[in-house]
Every structure is written in C-alpha cells, then in structure tokens.
Amino acid sequence: MCTWGGTQHLTQVEPSQGIAGDDTALNGIRLHCTRGNAGHNTHAVESKSGSWGVWSEPLWCLGNSFLVAFSLRVEPSKFPGDNTAVNNVRFRCSDGTELEGPGMGWGDFGDWSNTCPKGACGLQTKIEPSRGLLDDTALNDVRIFCCLS
Fold it and tell me: Any residues with CB less than 8 A from the CB of 130 and at least 6 apart, and which?
C-alpha cells in the first residue's frame, strides 16, 4: 500500500537507439512507499518490467502526499516503422503536484486515470516480451489498483 507519506516513483527507460536501432522507451515503473524514516520503513510495488534501459532517479510526492492518478505518453502504432508504445508516465500526487518521468517524448499524453482517493495499493503492467530481431515495444499499458481503506 502506498498511501502513507512520501510516495516515490522510478521509471526504467531505454534511451534513443538512433536511426538503425530498435527503440523501446519506457520499460518499467516501480513505486516506493515510505512511513516515517525512509531508510527503515520502505517497500516497493512493481509489476513486470521490460529488459532494456536503466532505472531513473526517484521522484517523490512530498510530505504526507501520495500518488492518486497517472497518465501515459503513448506513441501510436505505425507500419512500417519502429514502434515504442508507452514512452513516459506522469503521476498526480494527492496535493495536486504532478511528477513526470524522464521518458522519451514520442507520442502524446492521454487522459488521466480515475483518481484513487485513498492512494494506490497495487500496480500491473502489460509488457511485450522480446521479439528477437523483430520490432520490440516493451511497456504497453499500466493499471493502478486503488486502496479501499
């Protein structure tokens, strides 16, 4: 459960691979939740992640604020071409602050998810597995599960 103060999120992003490379962009999302002393009372919420990229520095909801909604930046499918699917994510904190990951700029941000008034308690990702020499996309969708109490 990520409703206690100081929720952070990290993203796993593959940088641009250039004209001849296969871009996957956003590969994973990890939420870290803290209560009191972050060094002693932290746990992570993560679903499956792709194989490419490195984890970013964390972005925090401050004080007793917590994540309540998200929006994905998605590049529409194109043929022929190098598809990436989800390129970045924005989270909204309960105090109204918006946090944007360091993902790629391809595509547009969609609508905000439904708001979780009591915070996020779970995370599910849809990941395309490696396709070898074919075009890879990695992260294709995200679902946040709201806390009930």
Answer: 51, 136
Alpha carbon distance 74, 86 (integer Å) = 4
Integer Cα distance of 112 and 87 in angstroms: 15
CB 63 within 8 A of CB 111: no
Q: What is the pLDDT of residues 53-98, one digit of tens each?
A: 888 888 888 888 888 999 999 888 888 878 888 889 999 999 999 9
**Distance from C-alpha of 121 to C-alpha of 49, rounded to nearest angstrom:** 18
Answering whether pTM is above 0.85, one says no
Residue 51: which region, alpha, beta or left (left: phi > 0; alpha: psi -120 to 50)? alpha
146-to-3, 11, 74, 112 alpha-carbon distances in Å: 10, 20, 23, 14
List residues bridging with 143 in a β-sheet: 124
Question: What pLDDT, in 10s, does the model give residues 25-49?
Answer: 888 888 877 655 555 556 777 777 8
Element (H, E) at 20: none
